[in-house]
Amino acid sequence: MKINKNCHEITIVGKLLGLVILSLVAIAAMADGPMTQVGQLDHFRDCDGCSEMVVLPSGKYMMGATKAEFEGQDKYSYMYIDETPRHEEPINSFAIAKFNVTRKQFAIFARETGFQGKGCEIFNGKAWITDASAGWQNPGFRQTDNDPVVCVSWDDAQKYIGWLNSKLHKTTETAYRLPTEAEWEYAARAGTVTAAYWGNNPQDQCKYENARDESARFLDPAADHASCTDGYIYTAPVGTFKPNPWGLYDMLGNAEQWVEDCVMVGYGGPPNLSSAQDSCKSRALRGTSWAGIPFAVRSASRAGMAVSTRESNYGFRLARSIQP
Q1: pLDDT per residue as tens, the chain (324 positions)
Q2: DSSP assigned state of 177
Q3: Which domains does the chain have, with CATH numbers?
Q4: How far apart are CA 265 and CA 103, in angstroms?
Q5: What sign does the CA torsion over 42, 287, 318, 146 have?
């Protein structure tokens, strides 16, 4: 991995300009109307094999689901308690990856560290099974180098992040990490207030995200699916579909994304953001995947699993703090 010594450094003037632009767009986006594209945000890449990062300005938003999202969705009412109470959440400026970590990026880490990561829950064409021979190189379906890496656990993601920070000689203040749940939803919403960043119509899903649709009905014919076809049964190369207003791709589909937080039912207390492996046994996942039902393709949707869990629809994207 070659470190880019001329990587983009964020200037104070640039961040202030970004804040002004974002504030103006966020005001316009508060209405339940068409998706509005935001002005140019700062991007940077720390090395040739690193993720391209998008710098999001400080702000605040309403985190969690609305009652309106669950109208007529009685069979999913159990999810409501986990996505509420809806509350205002302040966010400091931070950077988040434009795409999920890809197989190509993860392969560099695996090659240099000898990481194997065998044992993953996969779909074998009939049912979900635990396959001891499956892993990020063999998730049960074919992938390209530009597909999101899957069959990675929260623990695996931390190993990748530790390797990357060591490689780049990152300090604590600028180290790569997983986004928090609050940061992730802020980024996924991108100034919008609708169920998904494109609006409230699940049939528009195939334009923006790779999730369960007509092409994936065979996974479970009885499960809900969107009445459209995105052209992919399993993962798609990152960036295949339209981005959200802040230029982030696959935030609500393709692969579920591990985040930093320990699992907590609802938002009744402060989050546990400790990255220590022994601080909790389960961590949160956000977004959904190629296997996700349309109702899960929402910015407020949440999940969580044990930190050692590998599934062929679990991946991750990076975040990084921005120093003033």
Answers
A1: 433 433 333 333 343 334 333 433 343 333 333 344 445 899 999 999 999 999 999 999 999 999 999 999 999 999 999 999 999 999 999 999 999 999 999 999 999 999 999 999 999 888 899 999 999 999 999 999 999 999 999 999 999 999 999 999 888 788 999 999 999 999 999 999 999 999 988 889 999 999 999 988 777 888 899 999 999 999 999 999 999 999 999 999 999 999 999 999 999 888 877 766 678 999 999 999 999 999 999 999 999 999 999 999 999 999 999 977
A2: E
A3: 12-321 (3.90.1580.10)
A4: 32
A5: negative
